[in-house]
């Protein structure tokens, strides 16, 4: 278990659209929640949804089978790995998360500040 089910930030029944709508309504930089990924892929079980600068970012959370750990985004060398999804959230409440806009090729960063409860 990734340590998500009892957490206030885990939106178990939220789909992508519901999550994005809720974050737009919150309209606060650093608002976030975690939802199940749309694809139901065991290698990418969850998605971190973050609001920043009037945009919503969907950041995949990968499960790394070989180490039984979790990481954010696409695989990269030297990436941070965590023992649970809760650890990812706790870490990025203290340290900034880099948000990459692949369409505009820009980078922003924010901490996870406001839990959005929906669904």
Radius of gyration based on Cα positions: 13 Å
What class do helices, strands and sheet pairing give? Answer: alpha/beta
Global shape: globular
Task: Count up the helices.
Answer: 2
CATH class wording: Alpha Beta
Tell me how many strands there are. 8
If classified by CATH, what would the architecture be?
Answer: 2-Layer Sandwich
Low-confidence stretches: none
Keywords: SH2 domain
Domain SH2: 9-116
Organism: Erithacus rubecula (European robin)
GO biological process, one term: cell surface receptor protein tyrosine kinase signaling pathway
Describe this structure in words.
The structure is a single chain. This protein has one domain (10-115): SHC Adaptor Protein (2-Layer Sandwich). A hairpin with a 2-residue loop joins strand 2 and strand 3. The strands form two sheets. Strands 1, 2, 3, 4, 5 and 8 form a six-stranded mixed β-sheet that branches. The chain has a two-stranded antiparallel ribbon with strand order 6-7. The protein has 119 residues and is an alpha/beta fold. The protein is built from two helices and eight strands, in the order E-H-E-E-E-E-H-E-E-E. It is globular and about 40 Å long. This is BLNK protein. InterPro entries: Immunoreceptor_sig_adapters, SH2, SH2_dom_sf. Residues 9-116 form the SH2 domain.
Annotation keywords:
119 residues, alpha/beta, SHC Adaptor Protein, two-stranded antiparallel sheet, 2 helices, SH2, BLNK protein
């Amino acid at each position: 278990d990734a340590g998500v089910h009892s957490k206030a930030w885990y939106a178990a029944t939220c789909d992508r659209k519901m999550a994005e709508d809720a974050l737009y309504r919150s309209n606060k930089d650093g608002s976030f929640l975690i939802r199940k990924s749309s694809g139901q892929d065991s290698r990418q079980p969850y998605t971190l949804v973050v609001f920043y600068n009037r945009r919503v970012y969907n950041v995949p959370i990968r499960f790394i089978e070989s180490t039984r750990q979790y990481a954010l985004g696409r695989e990269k060398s030297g990436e941070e790995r965590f023992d649970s999804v809760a650890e990812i959230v706790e870490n990025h409440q203290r340290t900034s998360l880099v948000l990459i806009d692949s369409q505009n090729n820009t980078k922003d960063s924010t901490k996870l500040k406001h839990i959005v409860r929906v669904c």
